[in-house]
Give the backbone structure.
Amino acid sequence: MTDQTAAQPDKPIGPFLTIWTGQVFSLLGSEIVQFALIWYLTVRATSTGNSATVLTLATAFQMLPTVLAGPFVGALIDRWNRRLTMIGADGLVAVSTIVLALLFAFDKVEIWHIYAIMLIRAAGQTFHRPAMQATTPLMVPDKHLTRIGGLNQILNGGLTIISAPIGTALYGLLPMHNILMVDIVTAGIAISPLLFIKVPQPERTPESSANTVLQDMVAGFRYVWSWTGLMIILVMAALINFLLNPAFALLPLLVSQHLGKSAIEFGWMNSAFGIGVIAGGLTLSIWGGFKKKILTSMSGLMLMGVGVLALGLIPSNGFILALAAMAFTGIMMPFTNGGIGALVQSAAAPEMQGRIFAVVGSFAMGLSLISTVLSGPIADALGVQSWFVAGGVVCMLMAVAGLVIPAVRNIEEDANARKGESAPASEELASDEAADLALSTEAALD
């Protein structure tokens, strides 16, 4: 059986939903394990007096593969068998988690071991995420793409709601090596349908097939560079992520040190955010947003900045206000992300999307890697709330800039023009990965 046949317009959605369901289990397992590991680091590092540095370094190691390898990964994904790529990525995550579980079981684990495994797990996701993302338009009929996008938005919020209390409960009941087994089992569930289901490949022209990986990577950069509106959004994304990723990497310390709460309340904060994401996604799906998608995104970004700023200004006895601010920030995220990913996926040719999304992710995360490394010492000196205040203000400023700069304000018209230049991947797609394009804090919350 070959995976080289491109998907047809009347392709059945059942095979995709089977793969998607397996990925849901894998994501749930990863969220639970991630929650437990972050809280383990929070508790262990607090006694040393440099807890902010420990947490931000953990986040930095998770960013590193995307920043350094992202553009190359995109070029490889557009060449490789995407089914085998996803199997290999999930397998890498499972094997690395087994190693960490053994270290915990024999009481040999050190903080640097956790960093190393986080780096390997992130490398697997660097391959898996764009492979799944670029495969979706090839397996899902155009008429269902918007529904799948909306389903993904709700899924993201739902996983945050479910994983936080489960992670809290397991952290209090089980040793860490048993908690890690959850991720290993769910990774196996994700791999199983990929062993039997055919995943289509985009057709490559003889010219593109003759290109080297470096040439493919350069083509991806040139494509993004030629799209002025997208390039400006990427610069905005870099500035926003420069401040928001460190801020939310320090969220456990905001809960434990500033608000004086425990893992249970940290779980509630994550759940509040997830509930907000679901509420915002449902509201957007019913309303549909403004006629100009960019207006919906920039309005959402403005209000999301208000929520982040509120987190930075809340007093130490304001835990309920912090829950409300997290929920409000979550509500605004679907509005922020709603249109930009759809514009890119609908305008870009399928055979370019792996490279485009990898370049976008690498660019958006580049500056935030630097700020995350520096944020620990800064937070230890100035307090974790300083990052939330700065991040909220920058979100609001970037929203104003997006509405003022013509190339960004008119990006939808530019996208429509591009659809006439190359075969569209879909007519409408509310992308669950728009956070990678510009404006999501979700990665930092993980």
Remarks:
- The radius of gyration is 21 Å.
- The chain has 20 helices and no strands.
